[in-house]
Amino acid sequence: WTAFQTFTVRYDANGGTGTPLPQEKLIDTDLTVTATRPRRTGYAFLGWAESPDARTAQYAPGGVYKANSDAVLYAVWERVGGGTLPDAAAALKGGSPYEAAVIVKSAVGR
């Protein structure tokens, strides 16, 4: 009987939902990064990184994690759509529906 050292790779949706379950990695064996993609309204999922503040992904879904250590991989997000939709809500409170529609169209249509 031989015991193999294992490591745990955990995932953090980093503001999103649908966090994948942790994975166990055997020492000196490549781990296939989960293909599960978390979701976050208004953002595109770019992949996974070892820092919660990363702007670029280190690991793609289905990519390879090689390190022999426990890790937390954080979802990396990029805002989509440009502009801000809260401006439209403010226009509805103090302006006209037409004004709000113009703001939304300009924010989404960039």
Explained architecture:
The C terminus is likely disordered. It is built from two helices and six strands; from the N terminus they run ββββββαα. Helix 1 packs antiparallel against helix 2. The N and C termini lie far apart (62 Å). It is elongated and about 55 Å long. The longest helix has 12 residues. The relative contact order is 0.21.
Summarize the structure.
The chain has 110 residues and is α+β, with helices and mostly antiparallel strands. It is built from two helices and six strands.
The biggest sheet, with number of strands, parallel, antiparallel or mixed sense and barrel status, is: 4 strands, mixed
Q: How far apart lie the N and C ends?
A: 62 Å
Evaluate the radius of gyration.
20 Å
Uncertain runs with pLDDT below 50, 5 residues or more? 87-92, 96-110
What spatial order of strands do you see in the largest sheet? 2-1-6-4
Gross morphology is elongated
Structural class assignment = alpha+beta
Number of strands: 6
Give the percentage of residues in beta strands.
Answer: 25-35%
What's the order of the H and E elements?
EEEEEEHH
Mean pLDDT across all amino acids: 83
Number of helices: 2
**Portion of residues within helices:** 10-25%
